[in-house]
User: Fold this.
Amino acid sequence: MLAKHGANITGLDEHAEPAAGRFAMRIAFALPVEQQDVLASALHIWSKKEEGEIHLHAADRVPRVAILCSREDHCLADLLWRFDAGELRGRVVGVFATQPGHEAICSAYDVPLRHMPVGDGGMPVHEKELLEGLDGVDLVILARYMRILSEDFLERVNAPVINIHHSFLPAFIGANPYEEAHERGVKLIGATAHYAWPELDAGPIIEQDVVRVGHRQDPGQLRLMGRDVERVVLARAVKAHLEDRVVVWGNRTVVFS
Amino acid sequence: MLAKHGANITGLDEHAEPAAGRFAMRIAFALPVEQQDVLASALHIWSKKEEGEIHLHAADRVPRVAILCSREDHCLADLLWRFDAGELRGRVVGVFATQPGHEAICSAYDVPLRHMPVGDGGMPVHEKELLEGLDGVDLVILARYMRILSEDFLERVNAPVINIHHSFLPAFIGANPYEEAHERGVKLIGATAHYAWPELDAGPIIEQDVVRVGHRQDPGQLRLMGRDVERVVLARAVKAHLEDRVVVWGNRTVVFS
Amino acid sequence: MLAKHGANITGLDEHAEPAAGRFAMRIAFALPVEQQDVLASALHIWSKKEEGEIHLHAADRVPRVAILCSREDHCLADLLWRFDAGELRGRVVGVFATQPGHEAICSAYDVPLRHMPVGDGGMPVHEKELLEGLDGVDLVILARYMRILSEDFLERVNAPVINIHHSFLPAFIGANPYEEAHERGVKLIGATAHYAWPELDAGPIIEQDVVRVGHRQDPGQLRLMGRDVERVVLARAVKAHLEDRVVVWGNRTVVFS
Amino acid sequence: MLAKHGANITGLDEHAEPAAGRFAMRIAFALPVEQQDVLASALHIWSKKEEGEIHLHAADRVPRVAILCSREDHCLADLLWRFDAGELRGRVVGVFATQPGHEAICSAYDVPLRHMPVGDGGMPVHEKELLEGLDGVDLVILARYMRILSEDFLERVNAPVINIHHSFLPAFIGANPYEEAHERGVKLIGATAHYAWPELDAGPIIEQDVVRVGHRQDPGQLRLMGRDVERVVLARAVKAHLEDRVVVWGNRTVVFS
Assistant:
């Protein structure tokens, strides 16, 4: 069908799990502008007939990205650098911070910062403000945001939400993974980037990595070393998502290379 | 005190956690034979006075090691090779297998094999047989033994027991970690070597490592890839233990290099 | 064409380098026996017309593998275990050793061992004997063979030859990589599995890996730690080759997953 | 001697290479201010008598650090973040850039930037300007500086110089490691932080790391992936140096943990 419409295939990858009756294929192709609508229609008709799903992404469209953070800014500074350097495809249309202090880095990259503390109204009011701010956004990145977003929020936000959790999930779910890792005496600490789901730290994992630690590291040092893992894990996951290389199957992901 | 008794210090490492009031030091030294008893007495008197603990290990004594396994023999074959090659200090005095089939590899390394199935008497009878077989052993290695040993057994065995668990603990405790890892869609799988404690997969961790996996690996392939991690993680843990480099603090370990 | 001949595609991966005018595709498919010759002919006609290359491999054919080694047997023992366990597809038809001592492990896995020292006739005579022994073999594995095979031998052996080199190539070409690594003070040591080419340690790399080391390791300890890397790197390369996942482009490889 | 002067030892590590007649020890200790000069004198007298070397570093002194860079700023931005966050001990007293464009990031962290292009006078004039600018600095970091500094400069700069090289040394010395890595078809790429010596990419290695790559990555993608390794490798090396954990022995380093 692609050939018939004059598309030139530039990349193709696929993954099948016959036992589960699942099949995913990612095709990158170049197509003259005047053919795009026709092909899109043809593909949608085909997908209905075959009971498959088709997602079309225009590679030249620049996604609008929002970053939510709290006090810690290692992921924020790293992401801003990568978007600015063109490493990550997209434009950061806003940084929303519950804590003060990110003015300098945001203005260095010319990105609008909105200080949005969780006030007397608590999370319900905060989430309402957020939803307004996130209107029209294509991707929400929780860059060490440190608040639990409600099921209601996640349903209404209308964009995928990627979170970085500072442990190798499913180990150490919750708020203090480095303390718990130290107490358990693990020899590696990790980080996990995943799509946020209503259940805490439970969404589909996009990327994980670890770093070796030992008895000499106290929780504070684990936190320092963990930052380096958090940064690259989140960046790799965001990159894969923005390059349309991630397919979600239940709570697992297919990440094409 | 070491100098006074004519010891020549050849290695020294230490670790302090002042907040917890903990301090550990490992000193390797050479000492004329005739001085050894005198020094040992002096050290024990000193340790009582200072309320510390002293463990003296003669580096030229060959530890007696037992390996327990079930059907899978990748760790068994690997350990036998390493003991035979002199990589691991010690002599394997017996392999105890609940399943048939390890004759060839054991006889290749000239190691006595005892087939010890779990029979009608269940684990109580099996554990009793094991305890008799393990009498006088310095270290018990559970090389994918796949049975849960009772608290009573662990108290009576009179030797440290090192287990290899086929996951990155504390994630995926229990019998089917690779299936669970596949279901959760993790991007790394791991293995953990730890001292066996009555609580399942809960003892002090000696060594861990991971390997990167992706959506293409089904549980069977995770199991294959996991074997390579299990082997080296167990071997490194056994090596550290047999070289007296492991200090246990509660459920954590200090592993000197 | 595959569909027309009744083939059911079970796996497909491809890689293109348009700038270099290169394209490789690996297709796994099931086909009724009676269709196989017809399809093979059709594919070969097609490949001539298109000036491409086609390699057909029957997945149910058991490759005949020879292992060449010297004194060290860590790779040999590991490979024998993996072939025996079915992890590696193939049958080891012979182990050829320049040094004595591998009887026990070979007989444990019921594999014929031929002691083939390099005698007074030097390498020319040795290579001649080897060529006779390797007749009809599909793959030759140099499992720490430690001799340099001549260009003439490599041309005449009529089977791919996979070598494990005990360094992270192109660093430390030659016979003493661990000594050189220690002298240079590197913080990681590695191993490289590659197809053997007449130029020393220069053939297409199939797999590499490294392990972290530090100032405490002397060359002897680097050698010990290196073994663990050599084993898995060689095993992964052999596995990829025997599953027909490696495509050679000049001195680079495409390794499909 | 430390005890006699009232010092409280808070950390101790040592490394011996008896065969080479080498021994290094790092002792961290707390000492009342009024005792410091007395101890320093005593230690220096002792070191002369024993023909050893003693380096005393006051942990509360803030080292003055200069960063030299060219066009690429991934290491620069990362280092500035880490100094600002207190992860690296020291104060960046100046950034010297041969290329334009780092104003925003430097002013975000309130660090003076000096644009210092290599002009008609070539490197001799440039080095002279640099030497003036670097006067009184405790550490010079080459954060992808991309110029070869002369032997004369390195002798006169009067501060240790740490360079990040974008390959796993000793592989791929020189200016285009990612192109060479791609051509050689390696399966891992790396980065090396080392003290700069007159001979190119030849000084003592402080830290190295690698990341796995495959046939899909072209040199441009290797460069992208390499950045992540360069950043952390350089940061870890600078951290070790600034915490006085590095001892240089010939062209090797002892890096205490």
